[in-house]
Design brief:
Layout lengths: L1 H117 L6 H43 L1
Length: 168
């Protein structure tokens, strides 16, 4: 009987001890509930912020992607325009080259004669100055005609490229 009483006593002590632990666990769980709610709210806020950040990032990516495509299109168009401009310039240069040569030929002999006269050693100062003025006037006249020709060439190029730009 002594043994059984001892066993019962030990079992009783274990039961009381176990019951006390259960009550402690339940009370500690109840104490942790408000802390758990705070943690859950913080997690929810953080999740919402992350979702907002993700949305902003996606919008920024789309914006950057659209800009990149627009730049690619613009670069292709600029390359095409440059290529076309070079062709038009070559065409314009070929069309005025004959006129340019005629102007050069027209003034070449006159300029040569004036240079030869200026190189003469037996010229008086007045005559030399008069020849220099004549040479300057002749060169200005020639350069003016060449400049007019270049302006016509540039107008032609601008007109052609403007029409090309309008088509783009």
């Amino acid at each position: 009987m002594g043994k059984s009483l001892l066993i019962m006593f030990v079992l009783g002590a274990l039961c009381v001890s176990a019951c006390g632990n259960v009550q402690k666990k339940e009370s500690s769980i109840e104490l942790l509930k408000p802390q758990k709610l705070i943690v859950d709210e913080t997690k929810t806020d953080a999740l919402e912020k992350l979702q907002a950040l993700k949305k902003v990032s996606e919008e920024n990516y789309k914006f950057a992607d659209n800009n990149a495509r627009a730049i690619e299109v613009r670069n292709r168009n600029m390359a095409k325009l440059k290529e076309y401009s070079l062709l038009v310039e070559k065409e314009a240069e070929e069309s005025i080259s004959v006129q340019k040569q005629l102007i050069e030929e027209d003034y070449r002999l006159k300029i040569f004669n004036l240079q030869m006269q200026l190189e003469s050693l037996k010229l008086r100062a007045e005559t030399r100055n008069k020849l220099k003025e004549e040479m300057e006037d002749l060169l200005l006249e020639r350069d003016g005609r060449l400049a007019t020709l270049e302006e016509r060439k540039q107008d032609y190029i601008n007109e052609k490229t403007r029409a090309y730009k309008a088509e783009m």
